[in-house]
Write a structure and sequence with these properties.
- The complex is a heterotrimer.
- Chain A is of the alpha/beta class.
- Chain A has nine helices and eight strands.
- Chain A has two domains: 161 residues, Rossmann fold; 46 residues, no CATH class.
- Chain A has a seven-stranded mixed β-sheet with strand order 2-3-4-1-5-6-8, sandwiched between helices.
- The two termini of chain A are 30 Å apart.
- Chain B is of the alpha+beta class.
- Chain B has a six-stranded antiparallel β-sheet.
- Chain B is globular.
- By secondary structure, chain C is mostly helical.
- In chain C, β3 and β4 form a beta hairpin.
- The longest helix of chain C has 44 residues.
- Classes of the chains: A alpha/beta, B alpha+beta, C mainly alpha.
- β7 of chain A pairs antiparallel with β1 of chain C.
Chain lengths: 238, 84, 457
């Protein structure tokens, strides 16, 4: 068995995220119930070297700005439950919109791996992706895969392995906004840091507050007041 | 060259390519459309209409998204190409 | 200073433009990254998807194709499940002989054999042999359609109709999910962003028959509607009847949605966006294996968890006598006049009441009741089954009414529980129970009274 690490899978709908999840975990999966919040997330395990990666399949979302319940679930999991690594699955054939989500994830958490899926389909369509350039620009590993044909898995698992052992470090390149926005962030960030401490990225929280994200505000309030959110993963069959 | 023609997305014909100039929506829906790539300056292609005429599918930021006329009538843009 | 205060301060500093700018600038960066990191060597059009959409969302062929797909899905399920179902039933019957011998061998008391074999074993194995094969065929086939990308097209085609009744086009996706399991479908309504439309989808999902009701619908329609046909033709007629029943369910869904959006859930339809992803050939083998394995497993687990206790309970009720009448018969006699009014009978209503935990067990409980031994006599073939029904005064009208009641009645216990979890409201959960129940009473009542008035039966 060895040590267990939690890897959360995030991504737009229709990116083959579930295909990747299924291909990696095989039949070693069940639906976990997120107690108290009645959120069920599919989970499964994959063994690599001496480690067990527990994969959590977050709901597919276009954004994490919390317009829908699914987005709230995905965001809360990444931000508050702090998985060891967040694996963002992108569709190689529509990278522009997909990268949008990746950029949002990079703002909120540090350990991120970006998997560009459907790479074979993209190549058929004549789309060439320079993953090294993207790795450099984003500051986190970018890996091309094809979940359908199980291509790129060794590389992906090895990268996850090296992140959890600390062999490679993620340094997400910070998204710099226009001067106007940055100025407002500067005004608020110190105060935010005072309250939430080092638990969350104070820059990110400040940005969300400027954006008027009330669901996040409520969530933070509840967590600050010491409410314990328990994860209870039980087999759930209907 | 003529001044580009301003139009609403809902009035687009199949094949038209429209460059978004404004979104006259607020709140959650505005945010959602922005998330999907309906941002100012984005190029949108009218792909097809539903068998019953509404919703209409648009190609935006490399994906196809269907909108009802309630929304697509509130997105304005310039006709870049009529697709012919 | 609390986080609330900072939030208020942030609101002072922020403007709508600033909020837009945050998204816009993320997009700009994304755009720039793509510009630098991606190069296109060919024209980047996916013509295959466009050509397929020409057909699947065509004004002429779009709707006929949808209905044909639905029919094909049911036909494959019904025709394919026949043989495995009877094989499994035979196997369990064969096994039962040995189990009974074993009970005789250890001189087990008769009541123990009654509870364990006649109640538990027969009830559970019935559920497995009737439910397992259709599920093991239906789900993989459905998963293939889903993975291929066809379902969003259904939502696209149907949206105008849903909008007309104040609902959301994505409701067709949650309804499709309901064919498998209403309880899971209630959770899947989360894909509908706006609360009002989501509530509509939750409250009406039950009008799509789930896997637990398939067995009942298939058995009854093949016994009473397709009785005059044999072989492939019989399956075809059964399919036709099932498609008809599903259509009635869809019409009721639209009607209830329409009434609710005029009354309790007033409001304008909002927030509609639907992605039409490219068609992608699914991994056929993987999809089939995965979904038939997981679904079969869940049917098995459910059979043991829910059907087994209910089977025991029914046996006990049927075998505890007060005076010379069993508890079950007291209840049946009490319900009978009302049942007769609906063109059903007391046994049928009793079966639906005891079947609240799971729709799968309604038919087995009914049979236990009819045989009034509280156990399922071995029913070797559907012909035997029909004899039992006919002996209790069934006609095609009884079968039709029971099918409609099954289609329209209250959701199962698990679904109600999920509705409560999702809505966090006792009131809405109660309505989710009440609305279908009222409809399930009115429809057979009207049909029965009409048919009797004209003397068709």
């Amino acid at each position: 068995m060895g040590t267990e690490y939690r890897i959360a899978l995030a991504g737009n709908p229709n990116t083959g995220k579930s295909t990747l999840f299924n291909a990696l975990t095989g039949l070693r999966q069940h639906t976990g119930n997120w107690a108290g919040k009645t959120v069920s997330l599919a989970q499964g395990t994959v063994q690599f070297k001496d480690k067990t990666f527990q994969l959590i399949d977050l709901p597919g979302t276009y954004s994490l700005f919390s317009n829908s319940k699914d987005e709230e679930v995905a965001r809360n999991y990444i931000v508050f439950e702090k998985p060891d690594v967040t694996l963002v699955v992108l569709d190689a054939t529509s990278l522009e919109r997909n990268l949008n989500l990746a950029l949002q994830v990079l703002e909120m958490t540090k350990n991120v791996v970006i998997a560009i899926n459907l790479i074979d389909v993209a190549e058929e369509q004549g789309i060439q992706i320079n993953e090294r350039l993207l790795t450099n620009r984003l500051g986190v590993p970018v890996i091309k895969i094809s979940a359908r044909n199980k291509k790129g898995f060794p590389m992906l698992l090895d990268t996850l392995d090296r992140i959890v052992t600390g062999a490679i470090e993620c340094n997400p390149v910070r998204m710099v906004y226009s001067e106007e926005i940055e100025e407002q962030i500067k005004k608020i960030e110190p105060k935010v840091r005072e309250i939430i401490g080092g638990q969350l990225s104070s820059r990110w929280v400040s940005l969300r507050l400027l954006d008027g994200d009330e669901t996040l505000l409520n969530e933070i309030n509840q967590r600050l007041s010491g409410r314990q959110v328990e994860y209870e993963y039980s087999t759930h069959i209907c | 060259m003529d001044k580009p023609k301003t139009m609403k997305l809902v009035n687009g014909e199949k094949g038209n390519i429209i460059k978004i100039t404004s979104l006259n929506l607020d709140g959650v829906m505005r945010r959602r459309l922005l998330d999907l790539g309906f941002v100012t300056g984005a190029l949108v292609e009218v792909v097809r209409k539903s068998p019953l005429g509404d919703p209409i599918a648009f190609r935006v930021s490399q994906t196809t998204i269907a909108l009802r006329e309630e929304e697509s009538s509130k997105i304005e843009g310039e006709l870049v190409s009529d697709g012919n | 200073m609390s986080i609330q205060h900072i939030f208020a301060e942030a609101q002072e500093l922020s403007t709508p433009k600033l909020r837009d700018d945050i998204v816009q600038q993320l997009y700009d960066r994304s755009h720039k990254l793509c510009h630098e990191g991606i190069s296109y060597t060919k024209s980047k059009r996916d013509t295959r998807t466009e050509k397929l959409d020409e057909i699947f969302t065509s004004p002429i062929f779009g709707f006929p194709i949808m209905i044909a797909m639905l029919g094909l899905l049911f036909y494959i399920t019904i025709a394919g499940a026949n043989i495995p179902s009877s094989l499994i039933a035979e196997f369990f019957g064969y096994l039962e002989g040995y189990i009974t011998q074993f009970f005789t061998f250890i001189h087990a008391p008769e009541w123990l054999h009654g509870i364990l074999v006649l109640g538990l074993y027969r009830g559970t194995t019935w559920v497995i042999s009737v439910m397992l094969p259709p599920m093991a065929i239906f789900f993989p086939t459905f998963a293939l359609l889903e993975n291929y990308g066809y379902l969003p097209r259904v939502a696209f085609n149907m949206d105008r109709l849903f909008k007309r009744v104040g609902a959301h086009g994505k409701q067709s996706l949650t309804m499709a999910m309901g064919f498998g399991c209403n309880a899971a479908a209630v959770i899947s309504t989360r894909i509908i962003e706006s609360p009002r439309e989501r509530m509509l989808a939750i409250l009406t999902n039950n009008f799509v028959p789930c896997n637990g009701r398939w067995g009942t619908l298939i058995v009854l329609s093949s016994l009473f509607m397709a009785a005059g046909f044999t072989g492939g033709m019989a399956s075809l007629v059964t399919t036709g009847v099932i498609v008809g029943i599903v259509m009635i369910g869809i019409i009721v869904t639209f009607f209830v949605s329409w009434v609710l959006s005029k009354t309790a859930l007033k409001g304008v339809p909002t927030h509609y966006t639907l992605e039409l992803p490219p068609y992608r050939k699914p991994k056929i083998f993987d999809t089939v294996i995965r979904s038939s394995l997981t679904k079969s497993w869940s049917v098995l687990v459910r059979a043991v968890k829910v059907a087994a206790p209910a089977a025991i309970l029914t046996w006990v009720f049927a075998n505890i006598y007060i005076g010379d009448t069993s508890i079950l018969m007291y209840a049946v006699n009490f319900l009978d006049p009302f049942g007769k009014m609906l063109g059903l009978d007391g046994y049928i209503l009793m079966a639906f009441i005891l079947g609240l935990p799971a729709n799968e067990i309604v038919l087995p409980i009914l049979l236990m009741g009819y045989l009034s031994t509280g156990s399922l006599t071995e029913v070797d073939s559907l012909v035997d089954l029909k004899k039992i029904f006919l002996a209790h005064g069934w006609t095609w009208l009884t079968a039709l009414n029971m099918m409609l009641f099954s289609l329209l009645h209250y959701p199962c216990g698990t679904t109600l529980l999920n509705i409560y979890k999702e809505t966090k409201s006792k009131k809405w959960t109660f309505l989710a129970f009440l609305i279908p129940t009222v409809i399930a009473i009115i429809v057979p009542l009207v049909i029965t009274q009409t048919v009797r008035f004209f003397g068709w039966v």
